[in-house]
Amino acid sequence: MIRIKGRVRSLGLPTVWGAAAVTYKLACPLAQETHLEARLVTSAVFFAVGTGLILHVRQSLTRELRQLRRVAGAAQDALLRPPPSNVGGLDVAAAQLSAERGAAIGGDLYEVVATEYGVRAVMGDVRGHGIGALGTVAAVLGCFREAAHDEKELGAVLRRLERALDRHLRQGHQASAAEEFVTLLLVEIRSDGEMLALNCGHPWPFRMGPSGVRQLAPADPYPPLGLFPLPAELTTVGLGFLGPGDALFLFTDGAQDARDARGRFFPLSSVVTSLGQAEPRSAQAVLRGVLAALRNHTRDAPSDDIALMVVTNSRDTSRRGAGNGAAGQETPAAGNAPLTQRR
Predict the structure, then answer these.
(1) Is the pTM of this model over 0.85?
(2) Alpha-carbon distance 114 to 138, whole Å?
(3) Which residue in 90, 119, 133, 259 has the most C-beta neighbors within 10 A?
(4) Where are the domains of the chain?
(5) Which element (helix H / strand E) includes 22?
(6) DSSP conformational letter for 228
(7) pLDDT, tens digit, for every residue of 217-269?
(8) DSSP code per residue over 162-187
(9) Are 202 and 221 in contact (CB under 8 A)?
(10) Rounded distance, CA 79 to CA 141, Å?
(11) What's the rounded Cα separation, in Å, for the pair 239 and 118?
(12) β-bridge mates for residue 248, sequence order
């Protein structure tokens, strides 16, 4: 009812202007004259009325756009809420850039929660971007926030996400379900710093440690969720250890595929390597540095949604797990030695 009353009030002024113009044309003697001066006056009257109507419509649309942005901002706060600065002894910083100008949310998703099994994080990318991908983001994130606490095994969390996505696609997107999918990276960081992961078609993260920065690539990822059923057995992949002061940088492919006006790709690896050499490594500093470089490269107009997350180990611990050496020693990562796989 309030919305209807607002619409009626918004039509009041244009109606008065229109009625005044019609009254002038029908009742004013000058409007009936055909000489040049009379025609000029009549044209000026109708030009003024038309200009007023256009300005009024523009102001109304601007007000509605501001209202939609406030609603989108509220939806973002509720759905893709910023993570706490510290989760289970890990410093966390995350952000998203939307490909749609003026949009507050897009098709990327992230979350990090502390559970009794360790800190669990998800980074995902829904096919498409903008408001159209919001429903899929909500379905996946809502399921993860429950399953991360309920399921002991990381593979069980992934299967819950697969079922939630399947229900969402069947119930709300029957016509396009065959074309919808989500790339997804699940990471579990245990109390001793050991990292396990499951990857469904998503870019592998970067690890920042004492020996430098490198992108982990321990195994071929599974297909994105929604394209094919998950295999009967899911094997978690070891990402090594996140020692005190080390950082893990997760991102969606919009970051590495971002281009400038000349079509050049964003040098993500170089930027992350440069930022990861700083001591001590701050999650917020790394995130701000990558965001600033991305905005400068794309002139704040990325062609795809971009999500970034940095997790830094700020735990005060001297152990990394039995048989893995003391804190401060590097655990072999991708490119140096095979990483462990677990079931």
Answers:
(1) no
(2) 20
(3) 90
(4) 2-73, 83-132+181-342
(5) helix 2-27
(6) S
(7) 999 999 999 889 999 999 999 999 999 999 999 999 999 999 998 999 999 99
(8) HHHHHHHHHHH-TTTGGG--EEEEEE
(9) yes
(10) 8
(11) 15
(12) 207, 311
Q: Tell me the CATH number for domain 83-132+181-342.
A: 3.60.40.10
Place of tokens 């295999």: 231
DSSP-derived letter for residue 129 is -
Q: Judging by beta carbons within 10 Å of its beta carbon (0-12, 13-18, 19+), is residue 47 exposed, middle or buried? A: exposed
Residue 30 CA: distances (Å) to CA of 9, 74, 111, 177, 289? 32, 55, 70, 65, 68
Amino acid identity, position 99: A
CB of 60 closer than 8 Å to CB of 10: yes
- φ, ψ of residue 153 to 5 degrees: the values are -95, 140
Q: Which amino acid is at 220?
A: D
The strand order across the sheet containing 206-209 reads 86-87, 90-97, 306-313, 247-251, 206-209, 212-215
Highest mean predicted confidence (pLDDT) among 75-84, 98-107, 200-209? 200-209
Enter the tokens of residue 276: 């990861």
**pLDDT tens digits for range 27-49:** 566 555 566 665 566 666 666 76
The total of other beta-carbon atoms located within 10 Å of residue 98's CB is 23
Q: Distance between CA atoms of 165 and 201, rounded to whole angstroms? A: 15
Give 25's pLDDT tier (boundaries 50, 70, 90): low
> d(Cα 248, Cα 83) in Å, to the nearest integer?
15
Q: Distance (Å, rounded) from C-alpha 187 to C-alpha 72?
A: 29
In whole angstroms, give the CA distance from residue 8 to residue 260. 46
Mean per-residue pLDDT over the chain, rounded = 79
Place of tokens 């993500």: 268
Q: Where are any strands of DSSP class E within the chain? A: 86-87, 90-97, 108-115, 118-126, 182-189, 194-200, 206-209, 212-215, 236-241, 247-251, 306-313, 341-342
Instruction: Find out whether 224 and 191 touch, Cβ atoms under 8 Å.
Output: no
